[in-house]
Design goal:
Elements (H helix, E strand, L loop, with lengths): L14 H6 L10 E8 L5 E4 L2 E8 H14 L3 E7 L18 H12 L4 E6 L12 E2 L6 E2 H18 L3 E4 L6 H11 L6 E8 L6 H7 L19 H13 L3 E5 L5 H10 L4 E5 L1 H12 L5 H15 L3 E4 L2 H9 L1
Parallel strand pairs: 1-3, 1-4, 1-12, 4-5, 5-8, 8-9, 9-10, 10-11, 11-12
Antiparallel strand pairs: 2-3, 6-7
Helix pairs in contact: 4-5
This protein binds ligand PBG.
Ligand PBG binds next to helix 6.
Length: 328
């Protein structure tokens, strides 16, 4: 019998060897925790399609931030759930300097300066139409340039309130460059832009839209978010964001788009982020509740695989649970 020279299983014989040769690791400092904010006091309301995730009023959010920091999670991405009475077709409330979202950003940065705060740039939380840009009343078109004018103002207010990172999640053309120029001319040269560069028109955002009550009233988001069938187009969006001055580029959703994450890593020299979205969280939670999946193990495997695909950072509703698991 010929001798077998190659036995890949030799490297898998025991845990020490397996760990010695492990190619990728996930660390708590790679994680960004998305959090939902509401106006008011003493509110901590669970989101039914996202068990374990809450809408927090700002007073209740502070202890949550404290516990995230205690676990080593040093970045959050904040989304406002706005009451219907404050929503209109232009999302005007986003430009109200007294709004609870901007005030909370300032409060967090005063109380926890070491927590990196990422602010969302898009109209959907504030829009009575549930779209990320302004809808033309007659044609139903999502108006690109008119929307950007608002988004730039919104981005500046967020940066002035103290946001460290701006996250334009709206997918309008040209917004990264215009936000960057506005930041430069206002002297906000160190405010980062994490562009939602390749954001797909995905059905995995359902639970997030429940959390914010922000589903589009009419139509869908396919005229601005990308077709799930496309990857060349993702690279075109990446190229434009690099030219326009993005600091970090993102792929969203995560799980069904690992090829896009890998392509981003291979085609740029910026940190690549992936958004492990609400539907991906809900899938694991639901299967675990039924006893069909081991929640902790599937969470850890999923997050590790984002790293293997090339993600440097991961936005995930599992941030706190993963940090706890890593702490041991
Ligand atoms: C909208 C926005 C969405 C998410 C983040 N920002 C949903 C959408 O585009 O309708 C989804 C995040 C998630 O599902 O976790 N600006």
């Amino acid at each position: 019998m010929p001798t077998m020279l190659n036995r890949p299983r030799r490297l898998r014989v025991n845990p020490s060897l397996r760990e010695l040769c492990q190619e990728n690791q996930i660390q708590t400092c790679d994680l960004i925790a998305p959090l939902f904010l509401v106006d008011g006091k003493k509110v901590q309301q669970e989101i039914s399609s996202m068990p374990g995730q809450y809408r927090f009023s700002s007073d209740m959010l502070m202890p949550e931030i404290d516990s995230l920091l205690g676990l080593g999670v040093k970045a959050i991405s904040l989304f406002p759930a706005v009451e219907d009475k404050f929503k209109d077709s232009k999302g005007s409330y986003c430009l109200n300097q007294e709004n609870f979202y901007l005030q909370t950003i300032s409060k967090i940065k005063q109380q926890y300066p070491e927590m990196l705060v990422m602010a969302d740039v898009a109209l959907d939380p504030y829009s009575s139409d549930g779209h990320d840009g302004i809808v033309d009343a007659k044609s139903g078109e999502i108006l690109n340039d008119e929307s950007i004018e608002l988004l730039v103002k919104m981005a500046l207010l967020e940066a002035q309130a103290g946001a460290d990172i701006l996250g334009p999640s709206d997918m309008m053309d040209g917004r990264i460059g215009l936000i960057r120029q506005a930041l430069e001319s206002e002297g906000l040269k160190n405010t980062l832009i994490m562009s939602y560069s390749a954001k797909y028109a995905s059905s995995f955002y359902g639970p997030f839209r429940d959390a914010l009550d922000s589903a589009p009233k009419k139509g869908d988001k396919k005229s601005y978010q990308m077709n799930p069938a496309n990857i060349s187009e993702a690279l075109k969006e990446l190229e434009l964001d690099l030219e326009e001055g993005a600091d970090i580029v993102m792929v969203k959703p995560g799980l069904p788009y690992l090829d896009v994450v890998q392509a981003f890593k291979q085609n740029c020299h910026l940190p690549v982020a992936v958004y492990n979205v609400s539907g991906e969280y809900a899938m694991i939670k639901a299967a675990a509740q039924k006893g069909w999946l081991d929640e902790q193990k599937s969470m850890a495997e999923m997050l590790l695989c984002f790293k293997r695909a090339g993600a440097d950072l991961i936005l995930t509703y599992f941030a706190k649970d993963m940090a706890k698991l890593l702490r041991g």
